UniProtKB/TrEMBL annotation:
GO biological process, one term: proteolysis
Source organism: Rossellomorea aquimaris
Protein name per UniProt: Peptidase S8
MF terms (GO), sorted A to Z: serine-type endopeptidase activity
Superkingdom of origin organism: Bacteria
Range of residues in the leader sequence: 1-21
Family classification: Belongs to the peptidase S8 family.
Keywords: Calcium, Hydrolase, Protease, Secreted, Serine protease, Signal
Length: 1041
């Protein structure tokens, strides 16, 4: 019963789905093609022909010239006939022999309704054209001619398409302008692209459809009643179609009696419209199926019995088990099998710690319950985690180059990736190739633009588990051509990276879906094959298994680029949200973030993703929109950086891409949602979310900015390295190619410019505030690197205590944990030390001379505070001055001391004189005469105020006593008496001969014994004090008595 129902459903699908484009190339299974003897067609020359006798097929050949490829994007092939004739165009002889053609290159003509096919010049050619016709009567006159037609082609230049074919299929003829027609057709397209492209049986019906379509279309076109009948039946089936489109092979929709009747009606209409020979083929396909017994069956149950899909597909359930690193995987496998699950395998040969558990295996005849089995496995001590396999989806002078706005945007200069100048830079360069893995729906490498750019021999298909990674969806080819389509060959489009080699890894099926297991396999395989960049234009829920695969690839050095998602939500989808991935959002031609692009914390950057023209497997250049298209722009740029400098680490590549990106953030002042933010009466949440503080230069919607591939590549071309800029610096410094020009800007304001000399530059700028965004632009030739630098806060300068020439340590305070450096006058570090937890430091230094200049600064990594200038203080006093003798007769004091010292003389603490020593240290002090025996203290004071020890000078006695007063002396006296200075030694002489000596008492009286002297003798009396100063002699004449 299932086959009966589904065969009739296939007939229904033939009515409305196969004339649409963008589906995989299909081959009629089991259909043998005759040896081709094709007639060559010339451009713009019409060929008139007809089918003779039993002839049903005729062949033609078209070879594009180099001029055609340079001037045209397509050949427009027109076939005009009165009778029903089908025309098919093939990309090559091999495709023609294998009857492999894209559905959009099949058409049909009938009753003056011409078939017109625009065939892209995307293959090297020649191209083959097949005309096919079947007689209405089974017993056709083999000797007569029939089905006359005219065939011609011309070159045309068409813009990129948005997908879809121009011709109408039978269902479109019936549903056009009807109320539900649009939704019905969309559902039928979805069913076609999924269920009917999955295996040989669906492809058999494809071939049959194209033979029957012109006859069915002709009947509907000229029969209003037939059109109404088809629409009525399709309207009856709309719920069935909708559920099947949404759920595919997992649909649990139950067919009603009215839907069964509609299916029967549609089948009969189709059967009666076609010639007898095709009725035979339809009958053979139905193989006696009863169309009256499908009511009450579910879609999933019937699909499982048709052979169109695997019977177990609808119930397929798998788990991924992560075994702990120090545990045995074999032990876990044994335990899992003991639960009744026999299919347990390792996810990858590269790691034995990830296991795949298949809960339902039809071949081995067992079924296990997912929930209970998962809980059992989770409890095993050897297991780190268990998760179900989940589904992920794709995020969705060359002739078409003018349409590639992402490479050259004529409307907004900064709205592209800088490809024009980048291409000039790359001309003549022979850089090493870089392998970029496109982990997607596969890649069609037969296209002329990709034939030399794809490593098809290394490709892998994890959907069918084969080596054929061909694209049966189109998404992967579109992504790959953005990256690597060969430029300047006149075919189709220009890819961004001429040095990229695409590794096709198919993890998504014809519908663009893939599961956890396939994607994890694909990521790890790409890393093992040496892919330096892995593009993931897909998304879904978080998976620990995929996260493990991403970590695996990251450890192997791969740069992972992932699309942020197309829901327009403030949440980056997975795997873009992984820390191992560069997450990429989308921009449009206006250079603003696309409305559909997911954003929020974790978004790294954006790139062109709206209306991006690129290749599809059918050779057409078609527009597609999505973060899927944005990601390959970044992957191409990442690969280019790795070709330029293969030693770059993944983190360095990401830093280059984000630091050189363009700021496209803007404030939506007119957004009506802003009123809620400003309304003071708005509802306040009881537990409001804390407002997230963003890093300077980061925007929630556009990340670090929009990709600037020219700037990123120019960094390496111009050897640019900009040093960090701190809020205490007046220069921006770094390295750049000699002769290049460096400009520093704050917004639109130029802060300074300079030329790089000897490979370095220094641009003087005003001091900038912390967190200010600066752009440092370095230009040279076609290269232009613009690097965003955020002004960083320097550490606070340390507080340093006074340093003297007596100190052997520098001490002070600074922020805990910082390093403090001490530099000499030449800015050479002479000592350093760490600030302790209490915020103090004490750093040992060599003893320094007074007046020496030192510099102290606090250092945190590459950040250094403003320097504190230290002048070593003089804390050592001068030596005590040397002073010459001073007497009670002196009016000056002389001596030597420290050069330029201030000399001071004091008596009993009272300063009596001061002066400054000269450059040699000599000094002279003017003083008043001091008493003999007085002590004069002399000190020297240097510029620093240090005072020497005092030198004590005692005033010497240099004044003789007054002449003694002598009493009268007679010839009879034997003593000489008188008065003199107290204590003085008295000497009496006669004729220079001492005749007597004595000493004055404390009152000065003296009495000196002498011998009697003759009258008239002259005596001389002198007094000598303790200082041995001798008074003038007092002459006394001896009197006679």
């Amino acid at each position: 019963m299932g086959k009966k129902w589904f065969s009739s459903l296939l007939v229904l699908m033939l009515f409305f789905s196969y004339s649409l484009s963008d589906i995989p190339m299909v081959k009629a299974a089991g259909e043998e093609m005759p040896v081709l003897d094709a007639e060559t067609l010339e451009q713009s020359i019409t060929v008139e022909d007809e089918f003779e006798g039993g002839e049903t097929i005729q062949w033609y050949k078209v070879t594009p010239s180099a001029e055609d490829i340079g001037n045209f994007t397509h050949f427009r092939i027109n076939l005009q006939s009165q009778e029903e004739v089908t025309v098919t165009v093939y990309a090559s002889l091999d495709k023609a022999i294998a009857n492999e053609a894209f559905d959009r290159y099949r058409g049909y003509s009938y009753s003056d309704e011409a078939a017109s096919i625009d065939f892209p010049l995307a293959w090297t050619g020649p191209y083959y054209i097949k005309a096919e016709s079947y007689p209405m009567e089974e017993e056709a006159d083999e000797g007569g001619a029939r089905g006359s037609y005219s065939l011609a082609y011309e070159g045309v230049a068409l813009p990129p398409s948005h997908g879809g074919a121009s011709e109408e299929c039978p269902a479109e003829l019936s549903t056009k302008e009807k109320e539900n027609g649009k939704a019905i057709l969309q559902d039928m397209r979805t069913i076609r692209d999924t269920l009917l492209s999955e295996n040989t049986k669906g492809k058999e019906w494809t071939s049959l459809y194209y033979k029957a379509a012109p006859f069915i279309s002709a009947k509907i076109l000229f029969n209003k009643k037939a059109r109404e009948e088809v629409y009525t039946n399709l309207d009856t089936l709309k719920n069935l179609l909708s559920d099947t489109a949404d759920n595919g092979k997992y649909s649990s929709y139950t067919i009603s009696p009215s839907e069964q009747k509609a299916i029967q009606s549609l089948h009969m209409l189709a059967y009666e419209a076609v010639p007898a020979v095709l009725q035979k083929q339809m009958g053979k396909a139905l193989n006696g199926i009863d169309l009256e017994k499908v009511s009450g069956s579910t879609v999933a149950a019937l699909l499982g019995k048709t052979g169109l899909i695997e019977a177990s597909a609808a119930a397929e359930q798998k788990l991924i088990v992560k075994v702990k690193d120090n545990q045995s995987a074999n032990k876990v496998i044994s335990k899992v099998k003991s639960y009744g699950t026999q299919s347990v395998s390792m996810l990858s040969s590269q790691t034995s710690q990830l296991l795949v558990v298949d809960l339902n295996d039809e071949e081995k005849g067992y079924h296990a319950t997912a929930a209970s089995t998962e809980k059992q496995i989770e409890k095993l001590p050897e297991v780190e985690y268990v998760e179900p396999v989940q589904t992920y989806r794709a995020l969705s002078t060359d002739t078409s180059y003018p349409y590639q706005w992402s490479l050259e945007n004529p409307e907004i200069e900064t709205g592209d990736i800088g490809y024009d100048a980048l291409e000039s830079l790359l001309q003549g360069k022979q850089l090493p190739s870089t392998m970029i893995a496109v982990v997607d729906t596969g890649v069609d490498h037969s296209l002329a633009d990709l034939s030399d750019q794809v490593a098809s021999d290394k490709g892998k298909n994890f959907v069918d588990r084969t080596a054929d990674a061909s694209d049966d969806n189109g998404h992967g080819t579109h992504v790959a051509s953005i990256i690597a389509a060969k430029a300047n060959n006149h075919y189709s489009i220009a890819g961004i990276n001429p040095f990229a080699v695409i590794l096709p890894v198919k993890v998504l099926d014809a519908s663009g879906s893939g599961d956890t297991e396939q994607i994890a396999y694909g990521i790890m395989y790409a890393a093992d094959q040496g892919a330096k960049v892995i593009n993931l234009s897909l998304g879904g829920p978080y998976s620990r298994t995929i996260e493990y695969a991403l970590q695996y690839a990251s450890k192997k050095g791969a740069v992972i680029v992932a699309a942020s998602g197309n829901d327009g939500f403030e949440e980056v989808s997975y795997p873009a949200s992984s820390k191992y991935a560069i997450s990429v959002g989308s921009t449009n031609k206006l250079n603003i973030v696309s409305d559909f692009s997911n954003y929020g914390t974790g978004l790294d950057m954006v790139a062109p993703g709206s209306e991006i023209p690129a290749l599809l497997p059918d050779g057409n250049v078609s527009y597609m929109s999505g973060t899927s298209m944005a990601a390959p722009h970044v992957s191409a740029a990442a690969g280019l950086l790795l070709s330029q400098k293969p030693g770059l680490a993944a983190g360095e590549v990401e830093k280059l891409l984000t630091e050189t990106s363009r700021d496209i953030a803007f404030e939506e002042l007119d957004n009506p949602m802003n009123q809620y933010e400003e309304d003071p009466y708005q509802y306040e949440e009881e537990y409001p979310y804390p407002e997230e503080e963003l890093l300077p230069g980061y925007d929630m919607v556009s990340g670090w900015g929009s990709l600037n591939a020219l700037s990123a590549y120019s960094v390496g071309e111009l050897l640019v390295n900009v040093n960090p800029v701190l809020n205490n610096q007046t220069k921006v410094t770094g390295k750049a190619k000699t002769g290049s020009t460096v400009k520093v800007m704050n917004g639109s304001k130029v802060l300074g410019t300079a030329a790089a000399k000897s490979g370095a530059f220094s641009v003087t700028i005003p001091i900038q505030k912390t967190d200010q965004i600066l752009n440092v632009t370095v230009t040279g030739g076609s290269a232009e690197a613009s690097i965003r630098k955020v002004v960083e806060k320097a550490p606070d300068k340390p507080k340093v205590k006074r340093v003297t020439n007596k100190d052997s340590y520098v001490s002070g305070n600074a922020a805990a944990g910082l390093k403090v450096t001490i530099k000499n006058t030449s800015k050479k570090v002479i000592a350093s030390g760490k600030v302790n937890d209490e915020g103090s430091f004490k750093i040992k230094i060599p003893n320094q001379k007074a007046g020496t200049v030192l510099y102290a600064s606090a250092v945190e990594g590459y950040k250094e505070s403003t320097e504190v200038k230290l002048t070593v203080a003089d804390a050592i006093p001068p030596g005590a001055p040397k002073v010459k003798a001073v007497s009670d007769k002196s009016t000056v004091m002389t001596g030597t001391g420290e050069a330029y010292a201030f000399i001071s003389a004091k008596v009993k603490g009272k300063q009596i004189a001061s002066a400054k020593a000269n450059s040699k240290g000599s000094f002279t002090l003017k003083i008043k005469k001091q008493k003999a025996g007085a002590t004069i203290t002399v000190t020297a004071k240097d510029k620093a105020g240090n005072v020497s020890k005092g030198t004590n000078i005692k005033v010497s006695d240099k004044t003789p006593p007054p002449s003694p007063k002598v009493n009268k002396v007679t010839s009879k006296d034997k003593v000489v008496k008188g008065k003199s200075e107290a204590g003085a030694a008295i000497t009496v002489r006669a004729k220079n001969k001492t005749i007597g000596t004595g000493k004055a008492d404390k009152k000065g009286s003296f009495s000196v014994k002498i011998k009697q002297q003759k009258a008239m003798s002259v005596l001389t009396v002198t007094a000598k004090d303790k200082a041995k100063n001798v008074s003038q002699g007092k002459k006394v004449t001896v009197k006679s008595k």
